[in-house]
Specification:
two-stranded parallel sheet, 2 helices, about 60 residues, mainly alpha, about 10% strand, 2 strands
């Protein structure tokens, strides 16, 4: 899930709720660890009781 780095309170809540629904279906979350919507999704998934089922990826290029 990706989105704005400066979401509204409603946007954060929606991202967390959506991430919980995705986690309930057994899908692992993947993100670039950005602030905002990405962060809210990472918070929402473990709230479903699936802690450890989100992955963060750092991009790197020499």
């Amino acid at each position: 899930m990706v989105g704005t780095p400066a979401p509204s309170t409603a946007g954060k809540s929606l991202a967390q709720a959506t991430a919980r629904e995705v986690a309930q279906s057994g899908v692992c979350g993947l993100s670039g660890l950005a602030l905002g919507i990405d962060e809210a999704a990472h918070v929402g998934e473990p709230l479903e009781g699936r802690a450890g089922m989100t992955l963060g990826v750092f991009g790197w290029r020499p």
